[in-house]
Write a structure and sequence with these properties.
The complex is a heterodimer of chains A (298) and B (192). With 298 residues, chain A is of the alpha/beta class. Chain A is 42% helix and 13% strand. In chain A, α6 (136-144) links the parallel β6 and β7. The longest helix of chain A is centred in the middle third of the chain and has 17 residues, at 162-178. Chain B is an alpha/beta fold and 192 residues long. Chain B has a single domain (2-191), classed as Rossmann fold. Chain B has six helices and twelve strands. In chain B, β1 (2-6), α1 (12-21) and β2 form a beta-alpha-beta unit. The A-B interface holds A 1-10, 12-13, 16-17, 19-24, 39, 42-45, 79-81, 98, 101-104, 126-128, 256-257, 260-261, 264 and B 7-14, 30, 45-47, 49-50, 53-54, 57, 78-79, 92, 107-108, 111-122, 129, 133, 135-136, 152-155, 171, 174-175. β1 (7-8) of chain A pairs antiparallel with β7 of chain B.
Amino acid sequence: MSETTRETGGARVKRGLAEMLKGGVIMDVTTAEQAKIAEEAGAVAVMALERVPADIRAEGGVVRMADPEKVSEIMETVSIPVMAKCRIGHFVEAQVLEALGVDYIDESEVLTPADESNHVDKWAFNVPFVCGATNLGEALRRIGEGAAMIRSKGEAGTGNVVEAVRHMRSITSEIRRLSTCGAEELMGAAKEHRAPFDLVREIAETGTLPVVLFTAGGIATPADAALMMQLGADGVFVGSGIFKSGDPATRARSIVEATTYFNEPEIVAKVSRGLGEAMVGINVSDLPESERLARRGW
Amino acid sequence: MKVGILGLQGDVREHARLIDAAGATAIIIKHAAGLDEVAGLIVPGGESTTIGKLLDRFGILDPLRERIRAGMPVYGTCAGAILMAREVRGPEGVPHSIGVMDMAIVRNAYGRQVDSFETDLDVAGLDRPLRSVFIRAPIIEEVGSGVEVLAEFDDRPVLVRENGMLASTFHPEIAGDERVHRIFLDLIEEAG
């Protein structure tokens, strides 16, 4: 007799899809045509959004979930998973994206926040969520709310990897520090990180996050991607870095290859040759506080 | 015994953990030369389009196919099973395939991620049910006469064997139960 019970929407199934994306590159796309280029290049998933972060910076205004029509077009065009962004705390945008059937929702600081105190209750959804974090406490708060995947935030739309490095180093070094704590120190650590105690204790015991940790924000070259992988990322999100560059198809493919062979400098060197112009970068230190997207999220 | 895990993309670490737990030594393989060091290979879960493209671009596809045809045991889960199938049916094909196993498979056949699920499966030769995780899983529509069906779900084969080749449309490695990996290690011993 074959079994017919199907348990959907559990933590293992939601986190499991992120496990399948490991070692891969997830690319921001705004059209079905870009999604096709990303898939051809070897992306493991695409992120559907209205405008890439570099354009959001340039144009300003309120940034919302992408048009469902666009999201559906992208879903019909590619066979790889399709993710889409909702505003922080905007649980109705999340409901809409779930109804469309997207494979993952990014509750993202790149869009204009809809709630300045609360994030979406992600346990209430069957579709899994990925959320950004700048440090371990923020990652654990998001996991506590039901996030099935974490990405370090970086500073989106800058083409500057410095913040991604800062956030990834912060998360991994705080995990290392926790794993050396005695049991009596864990409540103090939970207080310091403003994180759920049970998750703090779990990290102290296992020495790793219970979900996959990707990196995002400012990755523009194959070497950037390999750097983040060597720093401990499970995979890479690339936003403006691809479709704001001179030759998106070639650059996308090179970033995929550098992510797979991140610890083989000969291959990273080979795929970095002759890529044409990279996106124009922004020095993060020149950005006023109010324009720093990584500060969004609580 | 050394067992390779194809390490281009996907849930490589989970497979390596279960191979080690089952008493063999897992080796991550990213180059064709690595295939000579191992007695068998696991093609993990991941994105079949991505893994296929990387196999092709880095010159692993042909040597791998030859090694399997020459008798090297191989176990593919989900994306791995898709890459091993001789025929990929339906609107979603794969650009590059190993194409060694006598079966026809359809990608993402249960629906999208919201339809991904876990369940308990009865597997031939195992004394208690196996926790199995199906993530954007494919469906095996048809198998050749030389293919043995070791487990079914909703009357479709989900764990199949053909000589030294094993394929599952689900992920035992996500549930962390190493019994299917033990079946694979037995196949490697038999191929010895």
